[in-house]
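Why show two proteins at once? Because comparison is the fastest way to build intuition. When a single record is shown, students tend to memorize it. When two are placed side by side, the eye starts asking what differs. So, the first record is below.
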Amino acid sequence: MQRENAMCYVKVHRVGKEVVVALCDAELLGRELQVGNGLKIRISREFYSGNLIPVSSIWEYVDKATVVNAFGNAVVEELAKRIAAVRHAAVNLGGVLHVQLLLK
């Protein structure tokens, strides 16, 4: 269950006609996650670091996105509140939920 005051980073990338919204729980930014067999995933500042916002405010960005890349239990849980497929599409990487969505 997500903390009521949970914060996340959001960064909007525009690539041609695509609007890619990158979201990550605030405490994950810059971290490296061990996901098994020596494989590591880095939550890069370059991709995710933008505005620091309350997790409940992600919808003003997600509603305009064509692609969403979300890392973190709080942001994925928030996405699942309105997008049922998130629960089935999310993967657990090193104890952290991750999902990528194609929306439009």
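Second record. Ask yourself what differs from the first in the token line.
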Amino acid sequence: MAIDGFFESRRQADHVRESKSPHSAPTFYGKKPQGGWCIVHAYNKLNDATIPAQTPIPRNVVIIDSMTRSIIYSALDLRDGFYQILMHESGIPLTGVITPSGLL
């Protein structure tokens, strides 16, 4: 199944791990507006219980505009987006997802 393949590659990269958490969100594919598909985790209940960040992350256009006079640049590959951002250990049990093969 496509979802299992997605998570197997993330497991091999140590981006996800099996879970025994009592919390989980359903996982499915959603259609992108420009075509294609993306993996979606329905974290609605978790989002409703979360206190919003006081400092929003700037949009990428703002970041790029602020770099126009820079001399030195570096690159960061975030191809897998949020799967590459370390999470505080206490938050990990809250972000479990249900897949066809079980809980991650």
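One difference worth noting in the second protein: The longest helix spans residues 2-12.
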